[in-house]
Amino acid sequence: MKNVRVRFAPSPTGPLHLGSVRTALYNYLFAKKYKGNFILRIEDTDQNRIINGSEKYILNTLKWARIEPNEGFNYGGNYGPYRQSERITIYNKYVKDLIEKGYAYYAFDRYEDIENIRKSMNKQGIIFSYNASIRNKLNNSLCLTSKEVINNLNSKIPYVIRFKVPSSERIKIYDDIHGNISFKTDFIDDKILVKSNGIATYHLANVIDDHLMRISNVIRGEEWLSSLPLHVLLYRAFEWEIPNFAHLPLILNTKGKGKLSKRDADKSNFPIFPLKWKNIDGYNERGYFPEAFINMLALLGWNHGDQKEIFSLKELINKFSIEKINKSSARFNINKAIWFNKQYLQLKSVEEISFLFKKELNKRKIYVNDNYIKLVINNIKERVSFINEIWDNSFYFFERPKNYDIKLINNFIINIYHLNEIKNIFKHIKIFSKDYIKTIIMDYINHNNLITKNIIQVLRLALVGNLQGIDIYLIMEIIGKIESIKRIEYICTFLSKKK
Asked: What's the topology of domain 262-347?
């Protein structure tokens, strides 16, 4: 495939969500696979909906996800400007061409008049549509004389410019995901191309930009499928080559009922944005690795054909194909997202995980030997899915219990005598290894006819403060003989005072 040029064209109306990032990802993978260009275009023609900070968020997200464009807004290129608000004069030139050729017209209808007609038709059970069936009865340049149109324009009567959709035609086009699609033009409105403020609408700007930027493949969300016939008609009116289209399936909520939304994320307490937006944490802040996030996102709608699920970005590029994108919508599963992050965490070296975790220790003003951190990480990494879970699963290696679970203490009949005896035995052990510690403790339990579970749980309480943690004998080996003895002494003191 030659001269592949694709674009990601978000509107700066807020943060990118999962669906938008997946669209960017699929465009990126497609461009990289065919050694083409991935372009970022900012579609900001609807100035009233722009939210401050959105453009920066878009750039930061693509950078974090490591799917940066090689051309476009903030990246440069030969087809700019890449922000639509800076291309108004370009659109004006082309819309005049449409009017001159009879493909577009001025509409001077007042909003109130349109609403009255709409209500009147609704009472008759007819759905109003500004199209071939009614446009010749309304206040537009198709009905007015040339002189009346000129007078209206000179008098600065507000107007919009609409596209003249041909009647009784069937538009046929092939979509790379959905196959052959056809539309009847009788069901298509004469969409507004230029608003009353002189700004081009999405439809006009989108088609002109894709042509001028030489976009070869338009890969976008399924929600734009209903706009496809109008875009095809615009290409035809301009006598331009139509790019290949591929409309991506929706991402459904966790129940598989409806498009995934922020409301679904809020209810189930999972992120829907890649990065933090205002006071809402994203995947990054929740501790997800960008590569795990991208891997998860790639498989939400695309199936490579085998059972493999873990792919590097390079592997995704090599394997990706539009033909293997599913037609049906993909159901989001937060547990699967967590699973992906855990797989990537396990793939990382102990050195890398230790480096990341050391930042948490430094925040807590805990300074220990790097080799000790690696030893701890090596023994607990399989228990966690995120870096930020390591502390909760390993804190007892770095600090003595500050308090003890009173409920557990009350459930045990704890004999301080036996704790002190075990402590004294520890003092004489020269090789403080987990296997030898276990042998010594089990011998003591059997010799004194004690209940194994009770002694082990009390020792765990002494070392951890509760009943969590890895193998109790391994904990003692890692923290060492001196620290193990001190922790037994501390709980004995605590129990003595409690009495």
From this structure: Glutamyl-tRNA Synthetase; domain 2 (1.10.1160)
Residue 38 β-bridge partners:
6
Q: Between the CA atoms of 177, 178, 182 and 187, what dihedral angle is there, to the nearest 10 degrees?
A: -100
Q: Per residue of the chain (499 residues), what is the pLDDT tens digit?
A: 779 999 999 999 999 999 999 999 999 999 999 999 999 999 999 888 999 999 999 999 999 999 999 999 999 999 999 999 999 999 999 999 999 999 999 999 999 999 999 999 999 999 999 999 999 999 999 999 999 999 999 999 999 999 999 999 999 999 999 999 999 999 999 999 999 999 999 999 999 999 999 999 999 999 999 999 999 999 999 999 999 999 999 999 988 888 888 888 888 889 999 999 999 999 999 999 999 999 999 999 998 888 899 999 999 999 999 999 999 999 999 999 999 999 999 999 999 999 999 999 999 999 999 999 999 999 999 999 999 999 999 999 999 998 887 777 666 656 788 899 999 999 999 999 999 999 999 999 999 998 898 899 889 999 999 989 999 999 999 999 999 999 999 998 888 877 6
**Class of domain 88-202 (CATH, top level):** alpha beta
Exposure string of 160-174, with b = 16+ CB inside 10 Å and e = fewer, is bbbbbbeeeeebebe
DSSP state of 274: S
CATH of domain 5-74+204-251: 3.40.50.620
Kindly list the domain boundaries of the chain, sorted by start residue: 5-74+204-251, 88-202, 262-347, 348-390, 400-498
Fold classification of 400-498 is Arc Repressor Mutant, subunit A (1.10.10)
Q: Give the helix ranges, DSSP H, for 244-302.
A: 262-268, 290-298
In degrees, to the nearest 5, what angle opens at C-alpha 466 toward C-alphas 410 and 455? 65
**pTM for the predicted model, two decimal places:** 0.92
DSSP class per residue in 62-114: HHHTT---SEETTTB-SS---BGGG-HHHHHHHHHHHHHTTSEEEE---HHHH
Please say whether the beta carbons of 460 and 467 come within 8 A: yes
List alpha helices for 395-467, DSSP H: 406-411, 416-427, 434-447, 452-464
Query: What is the enclosing helix (H) or strand (E) of 313?
Result: helix 313-319
How many residues appear in the chain? 499
Both tokens of 19, joined, read 């669906």
User: For 228, phi and psi rounded to 5 degrees?
Assistant: -55, -45
